[in-house]
Inverse folding.
């Protein structure tokens, strides 16, 4: 534990400072500052097209940043391939998870990293390890021989996370792990994020759902149209403020008016609009209080990047 | 992970109590080859009852011989299909290998093994070209190998006619090295008064090796993976292209082996044979439980599939039925086996 604490105080596992990315003359991402240390969860929030994918790709080594700095454990880096990022312990779990549905769980777990014993594989050892690793993550599978396609979406997500952890990940990048899941399954995945954190990993959790981000996150970065709207520690921002910033209060207000006009006398739509309006009013309060902690520099010419 | 956090998980139990609920039968039924095995038993019993000559040990030896000549290439075709690809050129590649070996040795008056080795190189090259075109262009292997199928078919006939002036090759039995080559590829031996062809032993050997590779080695893991999901395999570092090209070359290798058997069993080769056999290899694999879409299957299943084909092929003759009906019976059997397989697999999946 002391070793982890030392590195945390010395330098975070991953730190981006004022990082940005241009595709030719298109600014996909700019002015992003973010850090994650061991046993920390940094959440990246943003709507579609906010630049989340570009950010992941830079950290994962698929793309290179064009501005600012990217440090891993205090060392300036620029990855040419995901393999290099992996070698530094930065593993990405993408939405499609990179699993083969028809293959047993243990074969998927070790796919591409098979443990060999002479010319053959150490099948008994791999089965046991897969089972144990999953158990350590709190996933109690009936049978590691069942095809991974028979697991639920949340369980599959967790196997992918456990696999990354087992193969030496220090930092996990989770790309919208809860986006396609129901409420209960999302809860399961969130619990594994906490598990990973308790095991000393740094987690970068990408999501567009503040309700998922707030309970597990230590720091929050909100992206909008390729720019950072702000970067907060948990103590500096409340759930309501986070939601308000994410949703963009004025846009919701417009929607409320539209709903009201569309709904005739006595229609259900009218009621919906009413409830909606109340929520927007609450959000307004939240947004005003959020502005007391000013988002990082919002000056300078703004060029709107198209969605990548 | 040097740092282990105790999160209060109990030590792994040696056996999960929920696994015990799954019966041995259920485990057996989940195997891909089980449907084919049941089908083979039923067909064996039918011919055993209706065709007295079928009961002779020598008949079984003949059935096994016929099965082995289709079963050997079916081993590689099954692996390829588990890897998610097709090869329609396998049937004529067998003939092409035999023709090359025969003509090279005869025309250059070379030792038989010169022709055999040149044929091996040609067969592996055909496999490599098939595989390379499939992985580099992304065109479905069905179309790529349909193209090479027609090209080989044309080459077999045209080149043979140019070289020999005939549609068949000359007799190679006088060429130096023929005897030894025949011993390797087409000899027979007697066990308890029954003559057994050596291809049966080779077939068993190839099935065992392929099954071991598929189930016990990392290469086998990769074969299942590239057939199940090539993009996912690539994402975790599996060399997808190498695996696929290797599988096409394995088909080339076993097509070559079968071609050598044909050459040394008959001494001459007709350039038009082998057309249509590629479907029998595929049928054997599919009857044996290999999924047409890849990622699932068994080499042992393909062997049982080839055995079913051999039994039907010979059984109709032994039963004294009109052989004109052979393909009708074969088709009906195929359909029956596939439906049965489907039924069993669904039950097995449901019982999980």
């Amino acid at each position: 534990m002391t070793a982890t604490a030392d590195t945390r105080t010395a330098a975070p596992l991953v730190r981006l400072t004022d990082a940005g990315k241009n595709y030719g003359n298109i600014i996909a991402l700019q002015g992003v500052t973010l850090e994650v240390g061991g046993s920390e969860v940094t959440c990246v929030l943003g709507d579609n097209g906010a630049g989340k994918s570009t950010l992941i790709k830079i950290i994962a080594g698929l793309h290179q940043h064009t501005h600012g700095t990217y440090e891993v454990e205090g060392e300036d880096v620029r990855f040419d391939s995901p393999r290099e990022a992996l070698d530094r312990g930065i593993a990405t779990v993408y939405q499609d998870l990179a699993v083969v549905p028809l293959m047993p769980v243990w074969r998927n777990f070790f796919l591409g990293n098979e443990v060999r014993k002479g010319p053959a594989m150490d099948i008994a050892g791999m089965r046991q390890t897969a089972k144990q690793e999953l158990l350590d993550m709190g996933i109690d599978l009936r049978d590691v021989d069942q095809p991974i396609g028979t697991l639920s979406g949340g369980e599959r997500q967790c196997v992918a996370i456990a696999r990354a952890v087992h193969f030496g990940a220090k930092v996990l990048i989770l790309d919208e792990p809860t986006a396609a899941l129901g409420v209960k399954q999302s809860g399961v995945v969130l619990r594994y994020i906490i598990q990973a954190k308790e095991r000393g990993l740094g987690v970068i959790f990408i999501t567009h759902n503040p309700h998922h981000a707030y309970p597990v996150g230590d720091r929050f970065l909100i992206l909008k149209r390729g720019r950072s709207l702000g970067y907060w520690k948990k103590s500096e921002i409340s759930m309501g403020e986070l939601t308000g910033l994410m949703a963009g209060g004025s846009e919701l207000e417009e929607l409320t008016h539209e709903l009201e006009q569309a709904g005739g006398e006595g229609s259900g739509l009218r009621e919906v609009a009413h409830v909606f309006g109340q929520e927007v009013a609450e959000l307004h309060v939240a947004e005003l209080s959020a502005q007391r902690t000013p988002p990082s520099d919002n000056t300078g010419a703004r060029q709107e990047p198209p969605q990548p | 992970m040097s740092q282990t956090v105790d999160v209060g998980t109990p030590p792994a139990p040696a056996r999960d109590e929920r696994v015990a609920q799954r019966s041995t039968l259920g485990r057996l039924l989940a195997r891909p080859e089980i449907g084919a095995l049941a089908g083979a038993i039923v067909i064996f019993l039918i011919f055993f009852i209706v065709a007295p000559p079928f009961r002779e040990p020598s008949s079984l030896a003949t059935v096994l011989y016929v099965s082995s000549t289709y079963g050997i290439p079916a081993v590689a075709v099954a692996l390829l299909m588990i890897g998610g690809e097709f090869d329609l050129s396998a049937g004529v590649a067998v003939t092409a290998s035999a023709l090359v070996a025969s003509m090279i040795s005869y025309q250059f008056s070379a030792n038989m093994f010169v022709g055999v080795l040149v044929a091996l190189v040609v067969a592996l090259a055909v496999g490599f070209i098939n595989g390379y075109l499939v992985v580099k262009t992304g065109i479905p292997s069905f179309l790529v190998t349909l193209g090479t199928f027609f090209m080989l078919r044309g080459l077999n006939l045209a080149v043979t006619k140019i070289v020999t002036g005939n549609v068949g090759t000359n007799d190679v039995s006088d060429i130096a090295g023929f005897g030894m080559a025949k011993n390797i590829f087409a000899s027979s031996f007697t066990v308890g008064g029954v003559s057994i062809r050596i291809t049966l032993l080779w077939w068993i050997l190839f099935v065992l090796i392929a099954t071991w590779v598929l189930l016990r080695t990392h290469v086998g893991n990769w074969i299942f993976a590239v057939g199940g999901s090539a993009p996912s395999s690539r994402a975790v570092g599996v060399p997808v292209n190498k695996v696929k090209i290797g599988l096409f070359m394995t088909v080339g290798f076993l097509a070559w082996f079968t071609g050598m058997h044909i050459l040394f069993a008959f001494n001459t080769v007709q350039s038009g044979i082998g057309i249509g056999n590629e479907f029998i290899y595929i049928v054997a694999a599919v009857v044996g439980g290999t999924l047409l879409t890849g990622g699932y299957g068994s080499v042992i299943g393909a062997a049982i599939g080839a055995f079913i084909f051999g039994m039907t092929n010979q059984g109709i003759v032994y039963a004294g039925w009109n052989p004109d009906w052979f393909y009708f019976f074969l088709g009906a059997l195929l359909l029956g086996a596939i439906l049965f397989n489907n039924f069993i697999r669904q039950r097995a999946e449901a019982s999980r």
Q: What stands out?
A: Confidence is low (pLDDT under 50) at residues 1-14 of chain B.
